Fold this sequence. Notes:
Blueprint lengths: L6 H12 L4 E2 L6 E2 L2 H12 L4 E2 L6 E2 L2 H12 L4 E2 L6 E2 L2 H12 L4 E2 L6 E2 L2 H12 L4 E2 L6 E2 L2 H12 L4 E2 L6 E2 L2 H8 L3
GO cellular component, one term: nucleus
Keywords: Metal-binding, Repeat, Zinc, Zinc-finger
GO molecular function: DNA-binding transcription factor activity, RNA polymerase II-specific; RNA polymerase II transcription regulatory region sequence-specific DNA binding; zinc ion binding
Amino acid sequence: GQSFRDSSRLSQHRLVHTGEKPFTCTDCGQSFRDSSRLSQHRLVHTGEKPFTCTDCGQSFRDSSRLSQHRLVHTGEKPFTCTDCGQSFRDSSRLSQHRLVHTGEKPFTCTDCGQSFRDSSRLSQHRLVHTGEKPFTCTDCGQSFRDSSRLSQHRLVHTGEKPFTCTDCGQSFRDSSRLSQHRLVH
């Protein structure tokens, strides 16, 4: 068994085995094993973010989130994929990446059964079924299902043609038109 310096720590440890959570949030009723976790939770309701990044001033509710954020500034990516060596700032991004290697697609559309590697792609796909087009062009009011289609459409208004033929210099608004043109050469 474990040893403890005083009886209060022993009492606190016993809660691990009993499952008892005697500290309850008066705002939402969620319970915790110890008062420090309740105090940490209370920040959700107060909106207080006492841990501030000295580099950019962004604030966080807890020190672990600040530590995670600090990696943005240091460039450190401590989580490495054992299959391909690609590195990530946090374990959740590594887990997400691992699906590329396993082929697993755990997010499934309840309407059609199509599966996706991540929840954001499923959410994007769901718009096919709802018909929702949340991205609207501020110039003409035309709406699109995703931001990339809106960006592509915006080229109509800007006149920009970012895809250029390396053989003759002719430019196009999208890669498919450039590909079609290349058949000429």
